Amino acid sequence: MSKKLMLIVNPNSGKGAVSTALFDIIDTFSNADYLVTTYMTRAAGDAGKFAALSPEYDLIVCVGGDGTLSDTISGLVSLESDNKPPLGYIPMGTTNDLANTFGLPRNPRESARRILTSDLLQFDVGWFEDHHFSYVHAFGAFTDVSFSTPQDKKKMLGHLAYILEGMSKLSTITPEHCVVEHDGGRLEGDFIFGAVTNSTSVAGLVKLPGDEVSLSDGLFEVLLIKYPRNPADLGNIISNVLRRQYDPEYVSLLHTRRIRFTFDRPVAWTRDGEAGGIYQTAEAINLHRAVTLKL
Question: How far apart are CA 178 and CA 188, in angstroms?
Answer without folding.
Answer: 6
